[in-house]
Amino acid sequence: MEEKKMIKFNEQEKIDSVNGALALRPQINEIVDEICERGYSNICWLGVGGTWASAMQATVHMKEMSAIETWAENAAEYLTTGNKRITKDTVVIISSVTGNTKEVVDAIKKIKAEVGATVISFVDAKEAILLDLADYKISYPINEQLKFFMVADRFMFNNGEFEDYEDMYAEFDKYLAQDLVEVEKQAEPFAIEFAKKHWNDEMHYFVGAGNQWGATYSYAMCYWEEQLWLKTKSITSNEFFHGMFEIVTKETPVTIYIGEDAQRPLSERVANFIPRICANYTIIDSKDYELKGISEKYRKHLSHHVMHAVNNRIDVHMEIETRHPMEIRRYYRRLEY
Amino acid sequence: MEEKKMIKFNEQEKIDSVNGALALRPQINEIVDEICERGYSNICWLGVGGTWASAMQATVHMKEMSAIETWAENAAEYLTTGNKRITKDTVVIISSVTGNTKEVVDAIKKIKAEVGATVISFVDAKEAILLDLADYKISYPINEQLKFFMVADRFMFNNGEFEDYEDMYAEFDKYLAQDLVEVEKQAEPFAIEFAKKHWNDEMHYFVGAGNQWGATYSYAMCYWEEQLWLKTKSITSNEFFHGMFEIVTKETPVTIYIGEDAQRPLSERVANFIPRICANYTIIDSKDYELKGISEKYRKHLSHHVMHAVNNRIDVHMEIETRHPMEIRRYYRRLEY
Asked: Among A27, A48, A155, B159, which residue's beta carbon has the most beta carbons within 10 A?
């Protein structure tokens, strides 16, 4: 009997994509090393929507290891409130698929005109205004978190806060791409079941923490709401207990992402409690996926990639179950607003 | 004909409460001045749930005016991820109703034991562990935002970033308490209508920005979810356009809070767009309330108080319409978790 082929899954393409991103590291390091040589005061990850979510992930990752001042700045908020912590000595890092996201373009224009901070720009497209405006630019598709984390890790390494840096990336270079496609394969039967069970939920709750939080927020908003037109709420694992959980009863659909970084106990706390009040919950734990060749101590750096790989398979099957093509938008970039 | 009496509205008690909070200012200033005299590196507003939301409000308020490094720290996240920006030179500010919130107690214990930062503690209760643990303590009920903003404003004044400080507080001392009860009175007919219309919503969306955002987040979670057991989602005005709005259609209940601080345009953008896609929206604009005696330029400092006063009246009528007493909890502090 022939094995059933996974749809929308080009294994080689996925492997090449991750390896191509990892291969940007020498280029990234050259940029970061030059900035560190020159000196800088703080690091600002700037975005909006999904890229702001990635910025939150980079920030919590750095907070766990580093004394460098760093934060996630929402581009639209910067344009109104401003931020006096952004000076000529600040490093601003952005990422954009199209390279023309309005709020980010306007924010970077303002920063270049009024402040003169150093801007590092990642854009999927080959040509874009957000590349033109940057001091340092890298054009390469997808893998946003990987790009951000490579930048963050190099800054921390140069600051003497990441002893194992070379060793860790040696493992990633060798194993990560293959490991992530293996995660997708392992997740496939679960994803099929999950989509069949939840495609028609009136409302779905997603809970996460640490480097999974930005991904949880953006998965709920940028995938289920934006691309599947399904109602969701996302909440951090810690805040779950401060009000939100009062509306959870037996049939409320709740999905909890558990990673392996420092905030793992916060999500475990939700996972341990939820069976008492809910019979419609799902736990997605990065620990359940092998990641062959990766040392135990580096797994916490990869939890969000595991989650992303699992979600990739959920998306494929949600799109089928809902019969809702994920590329259509009702309003986004279709209306003036 | 006798005027109908507003229920759960003791005007004199409310006036005394706000004036009592404003009267803490000399005591607050003595604390802040002493810290400024000694020197400090940064300011951390630490909380969880509703108090973390207030911390976000204090932070955005400061960001608009100040170059001081400041941020909102979630107590539960601090306990796991830590934060190397918190040092012995940091000022940590907390607020708690009971003074025994587990995550905050543990976080402050850790900070005092491992770091030795300066802790300013506001607690509603007269005696509490969070008062015992603090370097500076103030015991006074409710008015959390007012307490936080008085601290923030004094730090900015001492840093030469708030020229009008004395003039502004002279107006607040004279007019604010009365103005806020007038807001409640003005909001009453609206609140009655709103509660009648929305008490049975399957799901309600709250949108806000700037110093209204923390309040929007906590109103949705700590009031409707926790106290009324109604499903809500809150989203910032800017992020509304980055995914969430795709699920809004004609009958989706959406409430937009518009304040008068720098992020006002972000909420106006939602208000201007929403009629095209939704016929079940509500706009609550602080500008619609008079605030007699308060200069135009200081109104932006009060938007969140106006919103809070309006929400007070909504709560009263939601409690009646839902026949759901707001003091009952299903799980919060009733189960082990």
From this structure: A48
Which residues, other chains included, contact B196 with Cβ-Cβ below 8 Å and sequence gap of 6+?
B317, B321
**What whole-number distance in Å separates Cα of residue A116 and Cα of residue B268?**
30
CATH superfamily for A11-158 is Glucose-6-phosphate isomerase like protein; domain 1 (3.40.50.10490)
Give the whole-angstrom CA distance, residue A120 versus residue A130. Answer: 10
Kindly report the average pLDDT of chain A as a whole number: 97
Choose among B210, B226, B246: nearest Cβ to A229.
B246
What mean pLDDT, rounded, does chain B reach? 97
Q: How far apart are CA A261 and CA A134, in angstroms?
A: 32
Please tell me whether residue B232 adopts helix, strand or coil conformation.
strand
Q: What's the number of CA atoms in the CB half-sphere (13 Å) around residue B282?
A: 18
**CB-CB under 8 Å, A81 with B210:** yes
Cβ-in-10-Å burial (0-12, 13-18, 19+) of A254 comes to buried
- Residues in B 133-172 with any Cβ partner in A closer than 8 A: none
What sign for the dihedral angle of Cα B311, B312, B313, B315? Answer: positive
| Mean local confidence (pLDDT), A65-92 | 98
> What's the CA gap between A232 and A201, in Å, rounded?
9
Rg of chain B on CA atoms, in Å: 20
Euclidean distance between CA atoms A34 and A17, whole angstroms: 27
Fold category of A165-322 in CATH: Rossmann fold (3.40.50)
B54 and B220 Cβ atoms separated by less than 8 Å: no
In chain B, helix, strand, coil percent, each to 5? 55, 15, 30
Give whole-number Cα distances, B137 to A21, B92, B99, in Å: 52, 12, 11
Asked if B203 lies within 8 A of A231 by C-beta distance, the reply is: yes
Question: In the predicted model, is pLDDT for residue B1 greater than 60?
Answer: no
**pLDDT-above-90 percentage for chain A:** 99
DSSP A206-225: EEE-GGGHHHHHHIIIIIII
Q: Spell out which residues of chain A touch residue B77, defining contact as CB-CB under 8 Å.
A: 60, 209, 236, 238, 263, 266
Dihedral-angle region of residue B333 (phi above 0 means left; psi in -120 to 50 means alpha; beta otherwise) = left
Say whether residue A102 is in contact with chain B using an 8 A CB cutoff: no
Distance in angstroms (rounded) separating the CA atoms of residues A262 and A292? 22
For residue range B39-55, list pLDDT tens digits in order.
999 999 999 999 999 99
For residue B4, the model assigns a pLDDT of 74
Q: Residue B313 in contact with residue B191, Cβ under 8 Å?
A: yes
Measured CA to CA, the distance from residue A96 to residue A108 in angstroms comes to 12
Among residues of chain A, what percentage have pLDDT more than 70?
Answer: 99
Written as six digits, the tokens of A18 are 């991750």
Decide whether B11-158 matches B165-322 in CATH topology: yes
Nearest to B96, CA basis, from B133, B59, B42, B41:
B133
Please count the other Cβ atoms lying within 10 Å of the Cβ belonging to residue A308. Answer: 20
Please give the Cα distance from B281 to B198 (Å, whole number). 11
Predicted ipTM? 0.97
Closest CB from A49, A243, A265 relative to B222: A243
Domain ranges of chain B: 11-158, 165-322
- Which band of pLDDT confidence, cut at 50, 70 and 90, is reported for residue A1? very low
- Rounded to whole angstroms, how far apart are CA atoms B107 and B74? 9
